Amino acid sequence: MEEEKLRKGPWLDEEDERLAYVIAILGERRWDALAKASGLRRSGKSCRLRWMNYLRPNLKHGHITQDEEHLIIKLQKQLGNKWSKIAKQLPGRTDNEIKNYWRSHLRKKTLICEQGSIQPSP
Predict the structure, then answer these.
(1) What is the residue-averaged pLDDT of the chain?
(2) Integer angstrom CA distances of residue 29 from 2, 14, 47
(3) Looking at the structure, do residues 45 and 70 belong to the same domain, yes or no?
(4) Mean pLDDT across the stretch 85-98?
(5) How far, in Å, CA of 77 to CA of 14, rounded?
(6) 84 lies in which domain range?
(7) How many structural domains are present in the chain?
(8) Which of 22, 31, 86, 103 could potentially form a cystine with 38 if both were Cys, beta carbons 3.0 to 4.6 Å apart?
């Protein structure tokens, strides 16, 4: 028995549509079985991450607002790098999105502000 080769790389629009359709029918469960049932040549983990981070209907897409930014800074100071706990306070945002935003935008900003005793601009 030869194992079918899994597809890697960027997702196509057709794959996104098929994944959303299958999840609408079967629900969010057993991702390996769901990946097989969908006919996508993707791993269960890949399907789960695609759904959780990009396709879920309740996700917010777009820029992080200043209010969200201030909340991330405040919560990171309180909780440390507990991204999933921080994400629970920001409905529609994923832990991965918040972590990436922290690492690419806010970490330096907060360090500069702490060194100069300057508050981040509202």
Answers:
(1) 88
(2) 26, 21, 11
(3) no
(4) 93
(5) 41
(6) 66-115
(7) 2
(8) 22
